[in-house]
Recover the amino acids of this structure.
């Protein structure tokens, strides 16, 4: 059996790491699936999904690393007028940072619970906020 859930998350900062472990755990419990997998997927190209230890200091280091790898100022080709949007694009950095993070994470489910490692946390990483973001959480199994 597969169940698909949608979650809207309002972000409040231009770059923000949002912990989602509890949200995902609650949805898995609601699904009644006892054994299987859960896949967390962002529906945006200027956000990312990543897994790491849930520490404030590490979150700051991750954001700092993304800014170093993809500096705010650069000769980005994406920074030009886009007729399809009717305006100049200014979010090349958000797309490139999202590319580095990826758009999903998958975890096993056992006895109706997400199997996290000892210090694992699931993050939605906002890279072009603040905005309302949509996340799909797909729970599959028995």
């Amino acid at each position: 059996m597969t169940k698909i859930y949608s979650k809207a998350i309002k972000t409040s900062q231009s770059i923000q790491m949002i912990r989602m472990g509890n949200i995902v755990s609650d949805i898995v419990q609601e699904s009644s699936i006892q054994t299987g997998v859960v896949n967390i997927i962002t529906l945006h190209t200027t956000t990312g999904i990543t897994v790491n230890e849930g520490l404030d200091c590490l979150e700051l280091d991750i954001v700092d690393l993304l800014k170093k790898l993809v500096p705010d100022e650069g000769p980005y080709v994406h920074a030009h007028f886009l007729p399809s949007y009717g305006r100049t694009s200014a979010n090349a950095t958000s797309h490139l940072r999202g590319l580095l993070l990826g758009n999903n994470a998958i975890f096993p489910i056992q006895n109706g619970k997400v199997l996290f490692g000892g210090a694992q946390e699931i993050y939605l990483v906002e890279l072009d906020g603040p905005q309302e973001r949509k996340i799909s959480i797909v729970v599959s199994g028995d």
Summary: The chain has one domain: 2-141.
